[in-house]
Amino acid sequence: MTLYAIGDVHGHLDKLDRALRLIETDGGAEAEVVFVGDYVDRGPDSRGVIQRLIDGLEAGRNWTCLKGNHDRMMEWFLEPVPRHDPHLPIGYYWLHERLGGTDTLASYGIEIAPRTRLIDLAHQARPRIPDAHVAFLRGLKITHDVGAVFFAHAGIRPDVALLDQTEDDLIWIRDQFHAHTAPHPKLVIHGHTPIDTPTHYGNRVNIDGGAAYGGALVPVAIEGRRVFALTDDGRQELLPQPA
Fold this sequence. Notes:
The model has no long low-confidence stretch (mean pLDDT 96). Helix 2 links the parallel strand 2 (32-35) and strand 3. This protein has helices at 13-27, 46-58, 69-77, 101-107, 118-125, 131-138, 167-172, 175-179, and strands at residues 3-6, 32-35, 63-65, 143-146, 149-152, 187-190, 199-200, 204-206, 220-223, 226-231, 234-237. The radius of gyration is 17 Å and the shape is globular. Helix content is 29%, strand content 17%. It is an alpha/beta fold. The strands form two sheets. Strands 3-2-1-9-10-11 form a six-stranded mixed sheet. The protein has a five-stranded mixed sheet with strand order 4-5-6-8-7, with no helix packed on it.
């Protein structure tokens, strides 16, 4: 069985469409695809990305969409009382210039007036966001476990059973996970940390190619523990590299 996965999209609908075309060329229209989250922020068309995913799911595509930390920040911002993510550095919030929430709101035609209170902006924004988009964010899965692989947006906490992982770790973890070189219970496919190109580290595969910062969105094909990048020239196997 071949699985496919797509890393962090970050509002780049053109890159998402190209990745989907590469997957369809390799595996057909019925290919099973796992998206590891971060559909919104930083890019120009977060609205279009969410709508493309909703359209595919409604059409019966065999797609699984996981939740990234940016998706949760948007979801929490749209709650009746906006919720702050405690994992953000002091002074940061979803609309901070480094996080890209303003780009996401702009894709919905929402402009931010100077000195608008956060809660007032949230109340202004919520009616402009389609209910289907809010429901999509709320309904995103946190993990996907199939065969020899385990999918999560950011990774897992080492030496904690897969069933005991916390949502915060699954969408936010970085250093402890990256530093761990011993085998995990399964090969972990993740994004969250931008790198130049998808890379296989033996116990994990990072598929965040930095689309948010001008990098490519390179889909991968997974067969057992073998992983292949999909390119215009076909498959290129990702051989394990030292961490």
